[in-house]
Design brief:
alpha+beta, Helicase, Ruva Protein, domain 3, Tetrahydropterin Synthase, Chain A, 3 domains, 3-stranded antiparallel beta sheet, 12 helices, 18% strand, Elongation factor Ts, elongation factor
Amino acid sequence: MHVTTATLIKELRKLTGSGIVECKKALIEAGNNINLAIDNLRKSGQIIAAKKANRITAEGVIMIEVFNNEKSGAIIELNCESDFVSNEKNFLTFGKNILTTIVTNKNNNFDELKIKFENSRAILINKIGENVNIRRIAILNGLQIGSYLHGKRIGVLVAAENASKESLKHIAMHIAASKPEYITQKDIPLNIIDHENQIQSEIAIKSGKSYEISKKIIAGRINKFMNEISLTGQSFIINPNKTVGDFIKEKNIKITEFIRFEVGEGISKIKTDFVSEVAKLSKQ
């Protein structure tokens, strides 16, 4: 077998835009014949996939499966470029295959999973004509696991103790709707609280109120802020007259952990004004 050099791999990547692993494999199979390697990559769809690799994937689906006698749950976010493709059969099958692999192997090693499904992803990109990205995966374990999917865009897993299925579902629905970041106020990192305290202090100083009044206002606003980002401090969407904390205390439920995925959160979408573009072109 010929030794594949770093120089050849670099050259093939430059010519095709394919990944290091794909280039190395193609060169080995082609006996370091770079033209043959390019042909093989073209035939396998790798070049098409590589050309689309930098295109933004802010649409897609969240998929969930609870397993292990409802003591474990797996969740994935699979992204594509358009909402249309997020409903496409091959795209959804690809996502289900990933989820099945996670559940079967009880393994959520992200790097291993991406390598395992890279060829299938390239074939899918070639077939549907859009970039596809396995963005994130997670497994949640606990004494009880509840879940909730809001359509295909928001998914929640909740780990709890001493909760009925209905209660767990309602709590998961609340998390989907209200986006808490922590379970209780005690779970909020001090740097987050300090940062908010600094902001509120500056606002209070500008208000011109006395020190004592400002101190009370700041304390009230900090408490409100902590309630807004903690699950137990939020008003319960099922019964807004009580907090989630009130509800779980009444039911003697303990929430140990939760995961919330929302399609495209944190991804900057490029907004294109097609009307303006056409108008500009017409003046040229």
